[in-house]
Amino acid sequence: MIDISSAVEAILFAAGDSVPVARLSLVLNTSENEILRVAEELSEKYEKEQRGIRLLRLDNKLQLCSAPEYAPFIIKTLEQRKPPMLSKPALETLAIVAYFQPVTRAYIDQVRGVDSAYTVSVLIERGLIEPCGKLDVPGRPSIFRTTDVFLRTMGISELSQLPKLPDMTNGEGMTKLQNAIDELQNASGGQMSITEITGEGIKE
């Protein structure tokens, strides 16, 4: 009889990307709850033993990744440049999408008060947001949502774990949104730096 835990570990290692829990359940002929139970055990084992890998739950998917504390050594070994950090405008746009998704670019522009076309394209290029359909109105504008990369970057398993956004109806929306952005920065799991930058870097 196959060992479910070892099978999940082997599949995630070979995949190199996130794998839907439903797919694992189907292939291994067991329930999704059992897959999640095994995944939680593996995750706790990796952390307890201070292993070099971590098992992440990204909404309804699972993925193996390197432990964040070893990122500098991995980058140096593989000769990878550290990803450029996101600017404040990009952080604002990302927070708007995260909290109000799915949203159109026009909605983002309205909340920020400036054109966000470039910033949206940067976030799509980074894999943090993605188009997820068209709004059923004249012109059929694209709507956007966050991705698995966003969840992994923030170190959370699902959107419900985001810091609570204060009431946006009393005219202090952007101030409150900025506070939420600060919380997002503090909540980052270290998989990718998302902080305001000065000097060289991405600008709007």
Q: What can you see in these coordinates?
A:
The protein has 204 residues and is of the alpha+beta class. The chain is 48% helix and 13% strand. The protein is built from 9 helices and 6 strands. It has a 3-stranded antiparallel beta sheet with strand order 1-3-2. Helix 1 crosses helix 3 and helix 2 crosses helix 3. The C terminus is likely disordered.
Mean pLDDT: 80
N-end to C-end Cα span: 56 Å
Sheet with the most strands?
Answer: 3 strands, antiparallel
Portion of residues in beta strands equals 5-15%
Give the radius of gyration. Answer: 19 Å
Order of helices and strands: HEHHEEHHEHHEEHH
Task: Pick out the low-confidence regions.
Answer: 188-204
User: What share of the residues lie within helices?
Assistant: 40-55%
- Read across the widest sheet, the strand sequence of neighbours is 1-3-2
Strands, count = 6
Concise account of the structure shown:
The protein contains nine helices and six strands, in the order αβααββααβααββαα.
Topology at a glance:
Layout: H1 4-15, E1 19-20, H2 21-28, H3 32-48, E2 53-58, E3 61-66, H4 71-78, H5 88-100, E4 103-104, H6 105-112, H7 117-126, E5 129-134, E6 142-146, H8 148-154, H9 173-187
Antiparallel strand pairs: 1-3, 2-3, 4-6, 5-6
Keywords:
204 residues, 6 strands, disordered C terminus, alpha+beta, 3-stranded antiparallel sheet
